[in-house]
Design goal:
With 141 residues, the chain is mainly β. It has a domain at 27-79 and 89-125: Sandwich (Immunoglobulin-like). The chain is 9% helix and 35% strand. It is built from 1 helix and 9 strands. A hairpin with a 3-residue loop joins strand 1 and strand 2. The radius of gyration is 22 Å and the shape is elongated. The protein starts with 7 loop residues before the first helix and ends in a 16-residue tail after the last strand. InterPro entries: A-crystallin/Hsp20_dom (IPR002068), HSP20-like_chaperone (IPR008978), Small_HSP (IPR031107). This is 18 kDa heat shock protein. Keywords: Stress response. Belongs to the small heat shock protein (HSP20) family.
């Protein structure tokens, strides 16, 4: 009986991780890029990020120079003891980070986020368009 889980899909993903390291989810020194969905609605953009195993107190959402950054960290304290030892580990531990370039039609002060059941939803409201649909005649001097 094997105690190390094995399935063909994870082997398939591992093949691509090694063959094409530039498209891996893990980048650099243990920083993981979470899976996200980005939705555009009439009045706002929504960024939905999966952050399993992360506590709300360990999440930071910032917006600086029209770049929205989601950062989080997760640490599991599963120390090996005399009675049990870790023989296989797949769950991620460490820093999680993802950044998004935002358009000019947002106000960073209006951004808000909700976190429930390991899912972070960041709502980025759009500013009202100041453009009118009317043509503007420019005088030539």
């Amino acid at each position: 009986m094997s105690l190390i889980p094995r399935d063909s899909w994870s082997d398939f993903h591992r093949f691509f991780d090694h063959a094409f390291p530039s498209i891996r989810s893990v980048s650099g020194a243990g920083v993981f890029s979470p899976k996200v969905d980005v939705l555009e609605k009439d009045t706002a953009f929504e960024i939905i990020a999966d952050l399993p195993g992360v506590e709300k107190k360990n999440i930071s959402v910032t917006c600086h120079d029209n770049t929205l950054t989601i950062e989080a960290s997760t640490i599991r304290s599963e120390e090996a003891t005399d009675e049990n030892k870790i023989i296989h580990k797949e769950r991620f531990e460490g820093k999680i980070m993802r950044s998004f370039n935002l358009s000019e039609n947002i106000d960073p002060k209006d951004i808000y986020a909700e976190f429930e059941d390991g899912v972070l939803v960041v709502v980025v409201p759009k500013l009202e368009s100041t453009r009118s649909g009317e043509a503007h005649h420019v005088e030539i001097s």
